[in-house]
Structures are given as C-alpha cells and as structure tokens.
Amino acid sequence: MDDLLRLDREHVWHPYTSFPPAVPVHAVARAEGVRLTLTDGRELVDGMSSWWAAIHGYRHARLDQAIRAQLDDMAHVMFGGLTHEPAVRLAVRLTELTGLDRVFLADSGSVAVEVAIKMAVQATGRTRLFTVRGGYHGDTFACMSVCDPVNGMHHLFTGALAQHVFAPPPPLGYEAVPDQDYLDEVAGLLARHAHELAAIIVEPVVQGAGGMRFYHPGYLRKFRELADEHGLLLIADEIATGFGRTGEMFGCDHAGVRPDIMCVGKALTGGYLTLAATLCTAEVAERIGVLMHGPTYMGNPLATAVAGASLELLAERPWREEVKAIEAALVDGLAAAEPYAEDVRVLGAIGVIEAHEPVDVQRIQDVVMEHGVWLRPFGKLIYTMPPYACGPEELAMVTEAMVAAARTLRTP
Fold first, then answer.
1. Is 295 annotated as a binding residue?
2. Distance (Å, whole) CA 102 – CA 21
3. What residues does 130 pair with on adjacent strands?
4. SS3 content of the chain, % helix, strand, coil (to 5)
5. 272 is in an annotated binding site
6. How far is CA 219 from CA 62, 96, 169, 182, 360, in A?
7. Of the four, 42, 90, 100, 346, which is 20 to 30 A from 279 by CA?
8. Catalytic positions
9. Euclidean distance between CA atoms 279 and 103, whole angstroms
10. What pTM value is reported for the model?
C-alpha cells in the first residue's frame, strides 16, 4: 500500500488541495456499515457520510442488489430519444416527494444547479440572479457565480464570473426571531434590481459548504413572498439539505414553501453513484419550451436504479426518529466543546463546532483519527454529518473526537 500512496502523490490531484496535497491522503480498503477500514488496518467511523451522501451507510444489501440486478439488463443507454424503467420510476417518486411536476436528471449537484439557472434564464428572458452571501452552490462556472463572492472558496475566479446581486447572509440561528431590519434590507435591494432578475436562489434553512450556517425558516418564507411579489422564480438548492438531513424531508418543508425549481443530489443515490436532479413546476416547463442541456450520462440506469432503491429504503426506515436521535446525541455530546469554540450548533443530523479562527486541518484530522473517527474540517469548522444508520456508540465516538479536537483550538 505504500506504493499505492506513492503513486497517488505523484499523479492524483485531490479536491480543494494543491498538488501534491499539503494534508496526507489515507487509502481506504473497505467500507461497510458506517465504518471505513484503511489499508493500514485502522477502522474509522465515517462522520461525513462521504460528503453527506451515504445516509444508509456502506454496502447496504438492498442498494447493492439494486445495482447488481440493473447490471443484468443494462449499465447505460443514451437518454436522448430513449427511456427506461429506473429513470421513469425515480422521476415519478421525486415528483411525489416534492410536489414539482417535471424532472431533469443531471450528473451531479453542480450540474443540477447549472440546469436550474438555465431554466430560470430561459423561462424569464432575464440573466441575473438574486442570492445571499454565505452560500455555496457548486464548483462549475454558473454555480460559482452565485457562491459567496468574498469569503467563498471561489473568490479567485471573480473576474471571470457573471455578476449577480447579493444580499447579506441571513442572521445566524434556526430558532432566532427573524430580524425585521434584515428583511427590509433584502426587500429594498431586491426591489431595486427586480427588473433584471430571473430568480432568487438559496439553500433552504442551512447554508452548507459556505459555513454550515443555520437560519430561521421565516427568511425562506420571505424569499418566497418576494419572488411572488416581483414575478421571480424561487430556486431551492436542496443538494445538501434534501432527504431528511435537517429533520424534514427537504429544507423548504421547515418553512412550508414550495419553490419553482429545486435541485437535489448527494444523498439521492445513498452515496453509491453520482446523480442529481433539477425539478420544476409544469408552469415553468411550459415557459421554457426546449431546455438546452443534455448530459451524455443523463438518466444512467445504474444510478437511477440505486436512487430508486435508496428512496424506497428511506421511506421504509424511521428516518425522522433516527435524525432526532442523532440531533439529541450531537447536542449532548458537543456541549463540552463550548468553552473552546466561538459557536457550537446542531440541526437535525448536522453538528458544528466553529472555531475562533481557521483550523489546522491536518492537526484536527490527526486528533479525530486517533479517536477512531473520520472527519473533514474546513475553514473555521469542525463538523459532522453522520449516516442515519449511526447508533449511540458511533455517535459518542464522533462527538468525543470532535470535543477532543476542539480542546486543541486556540481561544482568544
């Protein structure tokens, strides 16, 4: 395995790193349940759900079987002019879950957002978008243009990106009373630009990779009201928040609103294969006509088959109770980190320790791995989004590891 890691260092460029990476890369030999086994024999509880996707854990018999069974029929067929049962059944299930009538199957979350932006532009004839700072919507160019332009990870590309309209981030705190001054500021800013805007795009209730910020559902309701008032579309980026992660099936459910366009991904296939979807109302689809997008692997049978099985499994398992149990364990377990942190916050199956300054990623990873846990900190954050299959023992390991990492932080 030393040879494998040497070859990795010589040839493989990993995400969000320089080449070669400044932080060590660890080789995985096997993943099963909620645990990763490294090639050196160490076993780690995966507190990241493979970047928030593997909600059922690894090597789930139902999901494994769905892929094996589909492989006996076909691995792929073009979606232009052809269709197949796994894709159709998945689309129907998504419409049932979301209340949105039309489904465009995409390759990844970033592509789903690109498609959503295309939908908004084609449906309205306008090209600018309204969003909030602190957001993250993906790594491709249209997606980067609606990520936080100052503090986000894509600020290096500012001069090459389309210029959109940004409001301040929603005030922090899921349970905090909405700030009327903020609502008035957003309303005024949007009114000044409404004539040139196609849509409002936001992450419902949780701003994910932009900082793991939780905000009151009242702000999302206001975005819906403003979109209606000015004849704009509302795009909900549910790629991180969809399929139960926040305690509701979708982030929009916290506010009781339905967007005009919704993006889903990540947990859609249970972490097995890359797949996403962009959904919209029938009214939006009629305004668009021919949507100018068509990925080569759109509607891949293996991916749609396992996605269908994952959604069936989610419907059958008591995911609400599981997420509530995770939330309770995170609240209890992370409380000990408060003296060392700027903030500790939990919502659903998301637990966050925010440091006073950017963390040393390698040092934090060394600490949590010593405690038998895999996490991927970034910026000022040590956070977890564990699989729903995590039990009390695994959750205790995760929170103990996070608290141990927090104790290494410098405090003012």
1. yes
2. 42
3. 165, 200
4. 45, 15, 40
5. no
6. 39, 26, 10, 9, 33
7. 346
8. 16, 136, 237, 266
9. 5
10. 0.97
Residue 13 CB neighbours (<10 A) = 10
Q: Show the beta-strand stretches assigned E in 272-368.
A: 276-280, 343-347, 350-354
Question: What's the rounded Cα separation, in Å, for the pair 95 and 340?
Answer: 45
Strands (E), 39-145: 43-46, 102-106, 128-132
d(CA 94, CA 99): 8
Sheet strands (E) in 33-186 = 35-38, 43-46, 102-106, 128-132, 165-167
341 neighbors 115 (Cβ within 8 angstroms): no
Q: How far apart are CA 215 and CA 289, in angstroms?
A: 35
- The DSSP bridge pattern shows strands 43-46 and 373-374 to be parallel
Report the run of H or E that residue 222 belongs to, with start and end: helix 217-230
Q: Report whether 51 belongs to an annotated binding site.
A: yes
With H, G, I as helix, E, B as strand and everything else as coil, classify residue 21.
Answer: coil
296 is in an annotated binding site: yes
Longest dimension (CA), the chain: 62
For 50, 304, 324, 400, the CA distances from 395, given in Å and listed in that order, are: 16, 30, 13, 8
Residuewise pLDDT in 10s, the chain (412 residues): 679 989 999 999 998 888 988 889 999 999 999 999 999 999 999 999 999 999 999 999 999 999 999 999 999 999 999 999 999 999 999 999 999 999 999 999 999 999 999 999 999 999 999 999 999 999 999 999 999 887 766 778 878 888 999 999 999 999 999 999 999 999 999 999 999 999 999 999 999 999 999 999 999 999 999 999 999 999 999 999 999 999 999 999 999 999 999 999 999 999 999 999 999 999 999 999 999 999 999 999 999 999 999 999 999 999 999 999 999 999 999 999 999 999 999 999 999 999 999 999 999 999 999 999 999 999 999 999 999 999 999 999 999 999 999 999 977 7
Structure tokens at 18: 């320089």
For residue 80, the number of C-alpha atoms closer than 13 Å in the C-beta half-sphere is: 7
Dig out the tokens for 176 from the structure: 């905090």
End-to-end, the C-alpha distance of the chain in Å comes to 42
d(CA 351, CA 343): 11
